[in-house]
Specification:
single chain, 5 strands, 40% helix, alpha+beta, 152 residues, 5-stranded antiparallel beta sheet, 5 helices, Aminopeptidase
């Protein structure tokens, strides 16, 4: 992941928005989009009770997951050009087959880093979906945060 000036991949809506690679300087803003949108509105987050105010640890666990995921350098964000505000993010992970007997990235993170039962439930769902698509649980995982209408 670059420190700043993420690669420009394209523009949207007549140049009002830019799609860029996530950089270290954008990472906190990208993670904050999770708080304001994904954790509150995404169906799996609601089902796992990530959205409830008392489950702050679950949100911290998932932020840490996205921080580690961003290190691969394949995560993207969308910025509003006029304000520089991050309005959407896609945290992407390239997974490789682990050595025999070792766990893949998501399972290892779930077992070693996740403290809350709510985040564990969400990760169990992610792992199950990955295994359905690729029984070896190797591939490309994404956590996409869409733009939601807001009052600001």
């Amino acid at each position: 992941m670059r420190a700043e000036n993420g690669r420009l991949w394209g523009t949207l809506h007549d140049g009002k928005f830019e799609v860029r690679s996530v950089t270290q300087s954008d990472l906190e803003d990208a993670l904050d989009v999770l708080e304001g949108s994904f954790f509150l509105n995404e169906s799996v987050c609601i089902a796992c009770e990530i959205n409830l105010p008392e489950n702050r640890q679950a949100r911290l666990d998932l932020r840490k997951l996205c921080q580690k995921t961003a290190l691969d350098g394949v995560s993207l964000l969308v910025k509003e050009v006029d304000t520089g505000r991050v309005v959407s993010v896609s945290f992407n992970k390239i997974q490789f087959a682990p050595p025999p007997g070792d766990d893949h990235f998501f399972l290892k993170f779930r077992n070693e880093d996740v403290k809350s039962p709510q985040a564990r439930r969400l990760m169990d769902f992610m792992i199950e979906v990955d295994e359905r698509i690729d029984p070896r649980a190797i591939g490309f995982g994404a956590l996409v945060v869409p733009v939601h209408n807001s009052t600001d």
